[in-house]
Amino acid sequence: MEGAELRGVVAMDGPSGTGKSTVSRRLAGGLRARYLDTGAMYRAVTLGVLQAEADLADAEAITRIAERAVVSAGTDPERPEIRLDGVDVGVEVRGEAVTKAVSAVAAVPAVRAILVARQQQIIAEALEAEVGIVVEGRDIGEVVAPDAGLKIYLTADAGVRARRRRAQDSAQGRDASIDEIQADVRRRDEFDSTRATSPLRRIADAIEVDTTELDVAGVLAVLNGLVIERGLAVARRRTAR
């Protein structure tokens, strides 16, 4: 949508491997909007938990770490970054150890409360600046931004999601068999969808977009159409020369 900017909030929910991060960043970039990866914030806290060698079953210890941790997330879709206590941990939070532990950490209610408050602050800052923001995660439309002008639930066939995860991991120098990745996808889906606090699910007012048969351009075409339909696209402001 050349010549348009986003106003308001697009909430992007869904499981891993649906292309959520890629299309969220590109949607935000194309609409001159900010971008927030809430999952990276949970991964940063998880990294802190692992560095402290805390027991993943000890909710109180995890909560103390989350309370002390200074997690900051950049909102530039072209150069998103995540910092833990001032240190760029963008590479570390995508490692295998964090990936396997993040669901357990994210399931702790106090951790979610701490990070949701920060996420809502970041959204409020964008709206106060009259800038749109695309927010991705697993509980955005229901918990983080319940008043979002557009709520999307991305989905895809589990096998397709596993193959996408494998391609992404290989591109980043991580190697795992397709069977291992499929098992991890199933494990995370089960964990995230059955947790007591903010489970992963499609809420009633979210629009489901199945990406199984769509490439990135196809998904973006659908999303841009929905942005226009909801009246969230405005004429791009001219900058002074």
Automatic annotation (TrEMBL):
Its main location: cytoplasm. It is an enzyme of class 2 (transferase). The keyword Lipoprotein does not apply. GO terms for biological process: pyrimidine nucleotide metabolic process. It catalyses: CMP + ATP = CDP + ADP; dCMP + ATP = dCDP + ADP. It is found in: Cytoplasm. It comes from the Bacteria. Keywords: ATP-binding, Cytoplasm, Kinase, Nucleotide-binding, Transferase. GO terms for molecular function: ATP binding; dCMP kinase activity. The keyword DNA-binding does not apply. Its EC number is 2.7.4.25. GO terms for cellular component: cytoplasm. ATP binds at residues 14-22. Residues 10-221 form the Cytidylate kinase domain. Residues 1-21 are annotated as: Disordered. Belongs to the cytidylate kinase family. Type 1 subfamily. This is Cytidylate kinase. It comes from Actinoalloteichus hymeniacidonis.
